Amino acid sequence: MPQYLFVYHGGHTPTDPAEVEATMAAWGAWFQDIGGSLEVPGNPVGQSYTVSRGGVEDNGGANPASGFTVVKADSIEAATAMAKGCPMVVNGSGSVEVAEVHEIEM
């Protein structure tokens, strides 16, 4: 079954203990809904850097990544349907970029 990379954009890191608890509960519930399709839960990420031939910039680009997850699904349509349940999508604080992971034989 193909794997799909979910790259999160946006959102924020809660600081209030009640908000932290609610956020963690929402992510836990979504991961539970995904069930056996969850391959790598992933994590939030810190400051991103853009590396190009011209050098390194600490701007993270136009829409910097804020985290990632890897799931398995039968199709891109099934993967994007899963992504619609992401707490950042549901609460409107961010978006999920979905891309199939292609296996390359070395």
How would you sum up this structure, described in words?
The chain is of the alpha+beta class. The chain has one domain (3-44, 65-101): 2-Layer Sandwich (Alpha-Beta Plaits). Helix content is 28%, strand content 31%. It has three helices and six strands, in the order E-H-E-E-E-E-H-H-E. It has helices spanning 17-34, 76-83, 87-90, and strands at residues 3-10, 38-40, 50-52, 55-57, 65-72, 94-101. The strands form two sheets. A four-stranded antiparallel β-sheet has the order 2-5-1-6, with helices on one face. It has a two-stranded antiparallel ribbon with strand order 3-4. Strand 3 (50-52) and strand 4 (55-57) form a beta hairpin. It is flat, with a radius of gyration of 15 Å.
Low confidence ranges:
none
The arrangement of helices and strands along the chain is EHEEEEHHE
Shape: flat
Taking strands numbered 1, 2, ... along the chain, how are they ordered across the largest sheet? 2-5-1-6
- Strand segment count: 6
- The chain-level structural class is alpha+beta
Distance N to C terminus: 20 Å
Structural key phrases:
6 strands, 106 residues, Alpha-Beta Plaits, 4-stranded antiparallel β-sheet, alpha+beta, Dimeric_a/b-barrel, two-stranded antiparallel ribbon, YCII-related domain-containing protein
Layout of strands and helices, then pairs:
Elements (H helix, E strand, L loop, with lengths): L2 E8 L6 H18 L3 E3 L9 E3 L2 E3 L7 E8 L3 H8 L3 H4 L3 E8 L5
Antiparallel strand pairs: 1-5, 1-6, 2-5, 3-4
